[in-house]
Amino acid sequence: MLQRLNRASDEQEERVRQATAELARRYEELRRLNELLFQTQRRLRHSERLAVMGRTVGVVAHEVGTPLHSVAGHVELLRQELPTEVVEGSPGRRLAVIQSQLHRMAETIEQLLTVTRPPTGDRVLLDLNAVLRGVLDLVSPAIDAGRTQVKAELDPDLPPVSGDANQLQQAFLNIVANALDAMPAEGVLSVASRVEQRNGRVWVVVRVRDTGPGIPAGDLKQIFEPFFTTKELRKGSGLGLFITRQIVREHEGDLDVESEPGRGTTFALAFPATQSA
């Protein structure tokens, strides 16, 4: 009788242990599902805010951009109609300041419109090395002015990438321009392209590295947010990296950044490779 009671007690304890373990497993699964639900809801709210912001920005940009271009046109006509001695004097300098600020506002509005415009969907097979060379040509005046040393290590055997040439050029241009702005004179800009295997897929990865002061850890979490900038007042709108991330996402790519104060910054842009027919 005692043996039967002991066996029954042991069996009961085992069932309790199994039930406790199952309860713990179910609780962990429920916690994971709740966390997933919270993250999904947060992403949806963020997407909704972006959609509302996009529609609002589109309307505001259009309403402000039209009279802005009109004002800029009248300023240019005024410069042409004024006597030469006036244009070359203090009034001319003031008009030049007005024009430069109008141009800056127009550029900011154009960037806002770039964010709100839907992607064109016109994709072709691209050689990212050719896109990178074109970007370096575009910024060559800034490279020369800053006496920047450029180290380009472009893999000649890159597979093509399916993408919009203008959008990808804009993405790389934003990254390279930020790198040049971050560096003091005689800095080093490194641009490298290579092929990598990730999760069984072939990727084309471009890394842009500068020898600037680096980005503080607290700012790294915010650099891709719209209107966040570490540049001096009036030297940046805070939209460049936000737009770049949007472009990379539209091309099903990844964008990562590594930085440490005093040791420069590296941006890595990865795009899925496409085998040409």
From the coordinates shown, what is the CATH architecture of the largest domain?
2-Layer Sandwich
Name of the CATH superfamily of the largest domain: Histidine kinase-like ATPase, C-terminal domain
Please mark out the parts with pLDDT under 50 across 5 or more consecutive residues, or reply none. Answer: none
- Beta strand %: 15-25%
CATH topology of the largest domain, by name, is: Heat Shock Protein 90
Give Rg in angstroms: 28 Å
**What is the count of helical runs?**
8
Widest sheet: strand order? 2-4-5-7-6
Mean pLDDT: 81
Write the element-wise H/E pattern from the N-terminal end onward. Answer: HHHEHHEEHEEHHEE
CATH class of the largest domain: Alpha Beta
Alpha-carbon distance between the two ends: 81 Å
- Which secondary-structure class do the elements indicate? alpha+beta
Strand count, sense and closure of the main sheet? Answer: 5 strands, mixed
Write the layout of secondary structure elements.
Elements: H1 2-81, H2 84-87, H3 90-116, E1 124-126, H4 128-138, H5 140-145, E2 149-154, E3 161-163, H6 165-182, E4 188-198, E5 201-210, H7 217-220, H8 240-250, E6 254-259, E7 265-272
Helix pairs in contact: 1-3, 4-6, 6-8
